Amino acid sequence: FPIAESDSTIRDFELAEHWPKAFAMDHGWNWFGAVWMAYDRDTRTRYLYSCYKRSQAEPPIHAAAIKARGEWIPGVGDCSDINKYDGQQFLKIYRGLGLDLKLANKAVETGIQEMWMALSTGKLKVFASCEPWFEEYRLYHRDEQGKIVKVNDHLLDSSRYLQKAGALIFKTEVEAAHAGKKTPKDPFERFARG
User: What pTM, to 2 d.p., does this model score?
Assistant: First the structure.
């Protein structure tokens, strides 16, 4: 991204309680990465406020790290480390570990363009404390053929997934609680239950 770090870096601050949040994860054995963003609906600005990166650990370790930042926070993720079947199995594993997780839209070029636009217009800001994210940002580049070099990019991939997910993935804790409740099909059923 041809954007200076200083243009997207913001000093950490306490997030507004009414701002919805979401996370994104990129699963892999050698490296696993996850990012968390809050969304200011008034200004339509996203704040990447936390990140997690770890190598060679099992799904329960990663799930615990994700839930530690808020069990209610919904997310998107790439679980297709090897093939589509394994990706579906990993998705089941992470959901079984308590994550509210949907598969990510992994479109690379459109995701990069959306991130570039958000960064260049000030609609995506990154907390200064997210140093591992900035380490990847500094190394993110294309090869001689114009293809993204897929090395050390789990946090940036996660950021791209969350950018592609759109604003509707973001929820407040109250919204997440209501989303988890099933509405009775029979309008009188809720009264019958007392």
Answer: 0.87
